[in-house]
Amino acid sequence: MPASVPGPRAPYRGRPITAVVALLWLAAAGAGSHPARADETTEPAGEAGLAPFSAQYRVRFSALPFSARAERSLTRDGETWLFRSKIDARLLSLEQETRLVDAPALRTLEYRYRQGGLAGRRERLVTFDREAAIVRRSGDKKRQHPLIEPAWDPLGWQLALRRELVRDHPDLAARYAYRVSDGGDYENYSFAPGVHETLTVPAGTFEALRLTRVPVPEGEEATRLWLDPARDYLLLRMELVEADGRLLTVTLETPPAAAADGP
Fold it and tell me: What band does 155 get if pLDDT is binned at 50, 70 and 90?
């Protein structure tokens, strides 16, 4: 993971300001099945279907005086799915797009990342070449490494998590694990479902399931997710907590809408 989030007295030292926001969408790893083993290779049975959607979010970091708007959408594009995330703020922009297939199993084909603003421009394309068993990255830094299945990109793992929760509902697994690559080394994340609780966000009040990252590797952020079981485990709130207590949040701002098929 990058260095620590910069503090208010040194706002642009260390991790770029765009990466502070990007953590909410880039932090995780993929196993695509349960229990939480990053080397698991079996395919999940009876996977739940995908449905197009669009949702608006608000991103806030306690060390900064401004917030950012974010939008997420899932659309059908021919034989593939496009999962998009876009963040706009006064000083930055961040776009991510994952192309996936869902037959015979949900898998990432490619991942695109674009940033602009104060931290400068950066673009990359990560392709998951399953014939060659290689993950390739082009753009800001060219790299490649072996593709170890199941492998996810920094955005697609979150769609995989939702799909698995829908599939297992209401008898959830003890943990869900994911292995992710943005073209660099793999990172492994696992989340444990916790309590159901009433959660109020700008979009309304929901009965939410809380998930917590376990374990939290040394030097990385504690992560908590609140998802809505009644809406196919839609993300309602996400928190990243730094060791010094600074908080990064994403909250659902408007009720989600069904998205039309097509890019």
Answer: very high
- Which of these, 53, 56, 51, lies nearest to 70 by C-alpha position? 56
| Spatial CB neighbours of 134, under 8 Å, sequence gap ≥ 6 | 144, 145, 146, 147
Rounded Cα gap, residues 249 and 201, in angstroms: 11
Q: Mean pLDDT over residues 137-156, rounded?
A: 93
For residue 226, give both structure tokens. Answer: 């609140």
In whole angstroms, give the CA distance from residue 30 to residue 148: 10
DSSP 219: T
Q: Global pTM?
A: 0.78
Q: What are phi and psi of 139, to 5 degrees?
A: 110, -120
Q: Which residues are CB-contacts of 5 (< 8 A; sequence separation ≥ 6)? A: 14, 15, 20, 61, 63, 242, 246, 248
* Rounded Cα gap, residues 165 and 127, in angstroms: 26
DSSP letter at 79?
T
